User: Fold this.
Amino acid sequence: MPALPNSGSEIMATNTLFPLNTPFKPAPALVTWLITEVVFFSILILGCTVIPVLLAAGPDPLVTGIIGAGILVLIVVLVIWARLYYRSMWYELREDEISWKRGVWFRTTGIVPYNRITNLDIRQGPVMRALGISTLAIQTAGYSGQAVPEIKIEGLIHANELRELIRTLVRACNAPGDGTGSAVPVRTQMTSDQLILTELVRIREILEKK
Assistant:
């Protein structure tokens, strides 16, 4: 089994799809998925509420026209919202955490340290499968046992590659646990004070030999 990278710089050197410290966005197909999902649920709600009422009350051209115009306006607003929402989204992988931002009317930003990540799940519904995208759901220690993950990276084409990259970053950042229970040795680094002390000891040894 090949050795895992032990630092962010080594991981960056071997990673080309999701470079560290570089924001990335979901695939543009996410806009189509958002519009499809919202339109589907809107039609479902209308079919269960408004349409039965209209059929029971009898055809009325004025009421039908008003409802049709309202539906058209709603679809236009949803399309505009989906595009603005997509533009507001970005994610960024750093050496010790994941950060993200999204939102149209209400902006949401967040940070998830790698040492809190406990589980990584790839989710893909029928519409996403047809569009060739997936969602990576990231579960953390504070959200364990809850149905809603702390962060969802949506609209991914290379979801498997991103999941493996995050697992590698978790191992490098948090050696005792990588989210799956496996243990990885901690790579220790000498501080500047320790380096200076070591160098002084070597100089003293050389002087004593002379």
